[in-house]
Design goal:
The chain is an alpha/beta fold. The protein is built from 14 helices and 24 strands. Helix 2 runs antiparallel to helix 4, helix 4 runs parallel beside helix 5 and helix 9 packs across helix 10. The chain is globular.
Length: about 500
């Protein structure tokens, strides 16, 4: 087929994908998918509900029970998943444009980061599946104990709107590679690339029923999936508030295993002996404004030691104009649109609250590009923030940086850990002993040293405390989507 290269060439199909077929919701209802770029209607999308969830789960269960996917040799699943990854890259321009129009991120980031990362994730797990060995326990000579991984069965996946392809791939790739069947519910704010990914999975050779995508609102489609008695595992990325509900629903139903990657309020700590202040400034500013600040791991709390704070802020403010929101379809744009009006208004309310609480607004703070009909917020920096303030405690999910000061190491560790979250953190210091000491003291799933957000599929991603349960990425992700079975064989007459 011809891959669309401009937004005007794209045609969207908002129907769900169940058992290999595109279908509208059984109720006939749909919701409008609105682009945050300019407020245009992209397409109606199927408003799935419990009946559609039941249909998708039944299809996934049938596919699992007849072993059309899990019964394939790992090497066969690998070949199909590698083709799936290849198809994502072959359709990279189409997928990137779709992602940009659907959720507002700059198209160059959608192309170079999101599509590439999703394809790499699917390829990596496909390549890994025939290289993960089972075990033999070191028992006495009178027994042989085999320890094997088996797929859990039907996996429900609910992903957010900020990185639709990446978040989906982090979950569906290990789940599919392990032999499970999947029912994916993307966010209603950005459902379109998930649907295209499912089309391409079918084209690659994933059998019908193995990978289903149901679109709809959280209470109408997400809740029935989490509550479903025939779903063996639910994997969720999103807010801590909803994540808690997911765990409750998992317990209320069939005690399905629930894996949740939730919010963050990550501390970024810069000591006076930072080895490269310019790099620290660029990382602090670039990481909070990347993806419009719509990242759970964004370093939204910046702790700068008193003696270098003025110099640091001067350098940071000089970089802010480069992040002025622009047309996401322009290759020069580095910060795009907030996903929708509701989220834009939420960000603006947090900015207003920061001012009321006494923080000093140094940059931004207002809606931008009103004339476009889209949803944009200026890159915003607050100084004089105290750790008890709302903007320092709650996840804003927008381009808002809170700057706090500190004097000594014990003080900053105490402040950094004084949060319900524990997703990521960073330490900048020339003293490796201090950097490692602080890293060990921080309660976070990942601590960066003298950089922020460098990443690789081989390392796990997840958090402590209310930042969630379990890990995405790396071989550790297989633990979420497999059961460990022991087969004990008695040997009566050992030689």
């Amino acid at each position: 087929m011809t891959i669309p290269t401009t937004a005007s060439e794209l045609q969207f199909d908002g129907r769900a994908l169940i058992n290999g077929e595109r279908v509208w919701a059984q109720s006939g209802q749909a919701f409008d998918c609105i682009s945050p770029v300019d407020g245009r209607l992209l397409t109606p999308v199927a408003r799935c509900a419990e009946a559609d969830i039941n249909q998708a789960v039944a299809a996934a269960r049938a596919a699992f029970e007849d072993k059309r996917w899990c019964g394939l040799a790992p090497a066969q699943r690998k070949r199909i998943m590698v083709r799936f990854a290849d198809l994502l890259l072959a359709h990279a321009d189409e997928l990137a444009l779709t992602e940009t129009l659907d959720m507002g991120k700059p198209v160059k980031h959608a192309r170079n980061v999101d599509v590439n990362s999703a394809a790499n994730c699917i390829r990596w797990y496909g390549e890994a599946v025939d290289k993960v060995y089972d075990e033999i326990a070191p028992t006495a000579s009178t027994a042989l104990a085999l320890i094997q991984r088996e797929p859990v069965g039907v996996v429900g996946v609910i992903v957010p709107w900020n990185y639709p392809m990446i978040m989906a791939s982090w979950k569906i790739a290990p789940a599919l590679a392990a032999g499970n069947s999947v029912v994916l519910k993307p966010s209603e704010k950005s459902p379109l690339t998930a649907l295209r990914m499912a089309d391409l999975a079918l084209e690659a050779g994933v059998p019908p029923g193995v990978f289903n995508v149901v679109t709809g609102l959280g209470p109408e489609a997400g809740s029935p999936l989490a509550l479903h008695m025939d779903v063996d595992c639910i994997a969720f990325t999103g807010s801590t508030r909803v994540g808690k509900q997911i765990h409750v629903m998992a317990g209320q139903s069939n005690l399905k295993r629930a894996w949740t990657e939730l919010g963050g309020k990550s501390p970024n700590i810069v000591f006076a002996d930072c080895p490269d202040l310019d790099r620290a400034v660029e990382a602090a500013v670039g990481s909070i404004f990347f993806n419009q600040g719509e990242s759970c791991n964004a370093p939204s709390r910046l702790f700068v030691q008193d003696s270098i704070k003025a110099q640091f802020l001067a350098k940071a403010l000089a970089l802010v104009p480069a992040y002025a929101p622009g047309n996401p379809l322009d290759q020069a744009t580095v910060m795009g649109a907030i996903v929708d009006k509701t989220q834009m208004d939420t960000v603006l309310r947090y900015i207003e609250r920061g001012q009321k609480d006494g923080a000093a607004l140094l940059a931004g703070g207002e809606q931008a590009r009103r004339e476009t009909g889209g949803f944009y917020v200026q890159p915003t920096i607050f100084d004089g923030v105290k750790n008890h303030m709302t903007i320092a405690r709650e996840e804003i999910f927008g381009p808002v940086l809170s700057v706090l000061s500190f004097t000594d190491t014990a003080d900053v560790v105490r402040q950094a850990n004084d949060s319900v979250y524990g997703l990521q953190a960073a330490v900048w210091s020339r003293d490796i002993n201090k950097a490692l000491g602080v890293a060990r003291a921080l309660r976070a799933g990942t601590v960066h040293v003298n950089q922020y957000d460098e990443d690789d599929i081989t390392v796990p991603f997840g958090g402590f405390k209310q930042s969630g349960v379990g890990r995405d990425k790396s071989l550790h992700a297989f633990d979420k989507y497999t059961e460990t079975k022991t087969t004990w064989i008695r040997i009566d007459s050992p030689i």
